[in-house]
Amino acid sequence: MTSTPTSTPPRSGAPATAHGPTTLGSAGLFTVLLGAALPLIDFFIVNVALPSIDRDLAAGPSLLELVVAGYGLSYAVLLVLGGRLGDLFGRRRLFLAGMAAFGLTSLACGLAPDAWTLVVARVAQGAAAALMLPQVLATIHASTAGARRAKALSLYGATAGLSMVTGQILGGVLVAADLAGSGWRAVFLVNVPVAVAGLVLALRTVPETRSDRPAPVDVPGTLLLAVALLTLLAPLTEGRAAGWPLWTWVSLAVFPFAAGAFWWVERRADRRGDIPLVPPSLFDLVPLRRGLALVLPLSGGFGAFMFVIAVALQQGLGLGAVASGLALVPMAVAFFGASLAGPRLVRRWGTRVVPVGALVQALGLGLLALTAWRSWPDLSVGSLLPGMALAGLGQGLQLPVLFRVVLSEVPPERAGVGGGVMVTTQQTALTLGVATLGTLFLSLSASGSTATALTVTILIQLAMALVTAVLALRLPRTVG
Q1: 157: which of 11, 264, 317, 403 fits an S-S bond (Cβ 3.0–4.6 Å)?
Q2: H or E segment at 4?
Q3: What 3 state SS string does 56-88 have?
Q4: Are 43 and 149 part of one and the same domain?
Q5: Is 438 a domain residue?
Q6: What pLDDT does residue 213 have?
Q7: Could you report how far apart the first and last alpha carbons of the chain are, in Å?
């Protein structure tokens, strides 16, 4: 199987045809990275807006959880399907459809008159993100090669990590600015002009790629994957706020059976010569298998940290949205710098950059835990700076490199499903991190001190970083 167009190194400002450009130039790369940034920003931007949403819409804890979880669930459940649809119908076409849907659902979120309408709009927004995001990695993978692909994937990793940090910073600024009296609504409405600009740019700069012999949608696999993810993530994200009712335990009990059934169906389809939603043969690729094993603890800890620090600073210390966002600036700057330096470091040191990054991140988390324990409640944004910067530096040395590792041996015709599997793993880990460590933090802070809760959760994340450092030693030494 081959992918159209073939993977040849593109030139910046490549010529366009009547159907768009034939290669991914610099403007096209900027456009697809914009599409990658929007969904990740919106996963985190809402964290700092939740108190305002609660006051305005009288949402209550359960519905607030759904505002966050509804987006994450639909996003995670549909990502692999979005990748398959891009392989089938064309990645540029699906990118455009996803971008348009993301703009419309963001508008619906921003205009929501009540909490339930906001929840429904957030679920739809997550589905739109799942349609758009897999096309980014698939387009990069199918329309670049060599050094150009390495640079593009490094920039994707930088964009992903930076988006997760800047989402909360941007959210704080927008809520505090209260533009035209919009309050929390601005965190959603800001997406609309960005989506319109993205559509215009994509029409002119993003090439169309697809598999020459695309497989039809694997309906049983799609449904079973959806059931498996929902039975795991829904009770973990909603259980605490709902008081852990019976359905949460029933759902968790169903999860291993749903996951087992999904894997059995996929393996049977693979043996028959069909093309399942997630081909088990993909996991024969050592870089993909080992890289995904590292994406889980890294993204899970990252998602939990962003949620916990927002709650601790705003509710525990009473800082405003802007001040809590500013605390993350050193992390964002260090992450971006490390991401840009990553390709040069990898050329010299290979994947040994990843365990070094994990150790640097662990050092930063240790400093943050010590600062929180010793300085609370006199904790200041300035006192967090060294730990934040080191943690961001360590994460920036890991995430972009891991994305390159995971996709390094995925063939172009499977670029959509490969990207979908990777982003699904990342998104599931983010959601699990918030659901598990976030729940632990909220439970500890409710029964004791916020300082203890923050210190304990950061130390658990430190342990996860150390596990990542050890596992990273098993990565292939070089990456394409």
Answers
A1: 403
A2: strand 3-4
A3: HHCCHHHHHHHHHHHHHHHHHHHHHHHHHHHHH
A4: yes
A5: yes
A6: 66
A7: 21
What is the token pair recorded at 457? Answer: 């959760």
Structural domain of residue 296, as residue ranges? Answer: 21-210+277-472
261/283 same-domain check: no
Distance in angstroms (rounded) separating the CA atoms of residues 48 and 171: 6
State the CB neighbour count (10 A cutoff) for residue 423.
28
102 and 139 together in one domain: yes
**Using CA atoms, how far apart are residues 322 and 189, in angstroms rounded to an integer?**
19
The confidence score (pLDDT) of residue 22 equals 62
- What's the domain count of the chain? 2
Q: Is residue 14 part of a domain?
A: no
pLDDT tens readout for residues 38-66: 988 888 788 778 888 888 898 777 777 78
Same structural domain, 269 and 283: no
Question: Across residues 411-418, what is the average pLDDT?
Answer: 73
**Do both 264 and 168 map to the same domain?**
no
Instruction: Say if 327 falls within a structural domain.
Output: yes
Query: What is the rounded distance in angstroms from the CA atom of residue 21 to the CA atom of residue 14?
Result: 7
Same domain, residue pair 374 and 416:
yes
pTM as predicted: 0.80
pLDDT single digits (tens) 310-352: 888 877 777 777 777 788 889 888 988 888 887 788 888 888 9
The phi-psi region of residue 155 (left if phi > 0; otherwise alpha if psi is between -120 and 50; otherwise beta) is: alpha
CA distance 459 to 472: 20
Region 207-232: mean pLDDT is: 84
CATH number at residue 185: 1.20.1250.20
Task: Specify the range with the lowest mean pLDDT, choosing from 170-179, 286-295, 451-460.
Answer: 170-179
Rounded CA separation 210/212 (Å): 6
